[in-house]
Amino acid sequence: DILFVIDNSKSMGQYQMALAQAFPQFVDAMIANLPKHVSLHVGITTTDFYCTNTGDACCPDNCPVGNTLCTIGSTPDEIAALQMFYNPPTDGDNGVNGSQGRLFNFEGQSFFATNTSDDPAPLKAWFTGAAIAAGEQGSSIEMPVAAAAFATSEANAGTNAGFVRDTDAILLIVFLTNDPDASLESLADYEAMVLAAKQNCPECVLTAGLLKSCVPAENQRLWQFMTAFGDEPIWGDIEKKDGYAKVVGKALASTLTEACINIPVG
Known about the structure:
By secondary structure, this protein is an alpha/beta fold.
């Protein structure tokens, strides 16, 4: 089960396009590395927890709390301001496709289900279209950690049902963001949501990302989440778009393959 958490703020168009262009190479590498007859689920959610339906209030441009280098929400006043832009699904569905940790529905599918024995062309086409369609109109206060956690939560069971499988399945969470994380709940709470969905195989959670380089360098909140599940994440600098295929392709596929071989069965 592969979850892509895509930053859909205004600055992200070029990166979404680069990911969409690199994704077919990831599919080819994954199919080449994995055995036949392996079931795959691929889904997308966004980093937005504030924007509402078209025409309603949003924060795509001049949000009142901006990040400095790789920090955001570091003072009590900033945290109080950020609370205004955090509407988790436990407070109600804001009606936006792919928001609040819900999977992004594209062409009538909230996720793409396929098999390594199937023709990969439909998966490539669906993901390429969905990654671009996720758009750039989301909140500029990005919350990728919250998005990953709530994508696995019972709070979104209505839209995300069937995506995450607990037993005998790897959950790979891949982040694409050019800003630091502003999620407001504790890291332990978010980690617990993911592990609750994988309670029969907690070692089956892997993370990866195309990130701002300061996120791992400064051990920013997103990096803390990515390293919370044990294995060292594979990551690349989001600014180096010509390297996306390497990160999202062979290196990631080989890691996924190794994990599939080593997880307990049954």
